Structure formats: structure tokens, C-alpha cells
Amino acid sequence: MTSASIIKLSDVFLVTFQGELSDRDALTLREDLAKRVSGTGACGVLIDVSGLELVDSFLARTLHELAEVCALLAARTVVVGMRPEVAFALVELGLTLPDLETALNVDEGLSLLDGTGPR
Amino acid sequence: MTGVSTVQELPIQEEVDIVHVRQAAREAAVSVGFSLVDQTKVVTAASELARNTLQHGGGGVATVGLERTANHTTLQLVFRDDGPGIPDVEQALTDGYSSAGGLGLGLGGARRLADTFELDTKPGEGTTVTITFRTRSAVR
């Protein structure tokens, strides 16, 4: 039904989505990614949510937990590419996730992780 | 709401059904010409309530209905289960409260996203949540 793909770009993992993400898909991704970060010593994770038409409280919580797990594994997580309508719905839902780092797109996210972009 | 014309019924028995309910809600929202922001609100609320029906209600049924009047079209989503019911409705609507280890935004969040929100629950007999979204102007 869906695919989350994980691509390694030097020492950063890039996660992209296509289609609908079920709760199980989200949990599987969280575990896969944590294993790969731990196994490779990657220093950053970029989660590109531009392919998602919906981020509900379950997925938002899963992304937040993923960021916390990666932080314990010494990797910094940035969520990039959120669609404006998804942001509106999340805010009305009551979730703003202030401690989740975000960037406009993959490029900006990469420069944030490189330390060359704004903090 | 009376006179709901188009009704689609979907089972919520397993996790993948949450995705089916989201898809049906999106199709209905697109069919009445909701903006992308409004479509996303509909689908987000549907996702939260479908998950509640599965996790708290032990499964149930979602119905997606459309009511067309002269000036507006109303999209109605009903989530019904025969589960244990909600003992303390006020508490269940409070953000941050959850009996299933979630963030506890399902009910309160859906209430904020929708134009109207009704909750009917009886301990031991189940829960029905009805939300509606109305088009901003006439849709032909």
C-alpha cells in the first residue's frame, strides 16, 4: 500500500514516502531507521514528508519518537517538506511538535545538518 | 442531520481499515469541492476517529454521508462501535488524556477540526461520534 524508502547520502539517511502510510508502516519505519542509524553511525536523518497527504496524531507522535530515538543514537533528525494543508490540519488537531526540527525541503534540511544553514 | 443522501459504510475491524476510511473520506471531500486545506482536515479527523473506534471501541463501522441543500453540501462522518463506552466524556475530550498510550488528541482534535461534533456514549453499550463539515458556498 505504501512505501517508505530509506536512502543513505554520505552520513545522512533520507526517508521519503509515497502513498498512504498505515500505523504499522510508521512503526516499522521507526525500527528500521533506528537500526540503520545505529549500525552505520549516521549523524543525521532527513524525513521528507512532502509525499504525505496526511499526518495525524499517531504519525506525528511516531516521527517525534523517531527523532528522540535518533538523538540517543547521536543523530540529528529534521522533518522536511511538510505540505501547508498538512500543517494547518496538525495545528487544528492540537499538535505543533515544537521540539521537532523542520526545514522547507531536502536541500535546506541538508544544509541545516551540515551546519551551513540557519539554525 | 436528516436526509443524508449518499451513504457509504465501511467496516473498521483491522488497522488497514483506518486507511480505507481515510480514502473514502477524502473522496467524499473532493467530490463536494472542498479546498485542499478542508480536505486534509476531513481526512485527519477521519483518521483520528477511525483509530479510536478500533483501539477503544474494539472495532465498528464508519459511514460517510453527503447532504445537499440549496446553499451547502454537508459531509457527515459517523463512527460507531459497540465497545465499552467512554466513562468520563469530559476527560476523554481533554487534550493529553488517553487510555491507549497515545497523545490523547483523537476526540478533542477531531472536535476542533470539524464544523460540528456530537458524541453519544453509554458505558457498556458503545460509542457513536458524528462529525460534519460544510461547504463554504453552494456547490452544484
From TrEMBL, chain A:
> What name does the UniProt record give this protein?
Anti-anti-sigma regulatory factor (Antagonist of anti-sigma factor)
Can you tell me which residues the record assigns to a coiled coil? none
Q: Which PROSITE patterns match?
A: STAS
Pfam families, A to Z: STAS
Gene3D superfamilies, alphabetically?
STAS domain
Span of domain STAS: 2-113
Q: Which domain of life is it from?
A: Bacteria
Q: Which residues form the signal peptide?
A: none
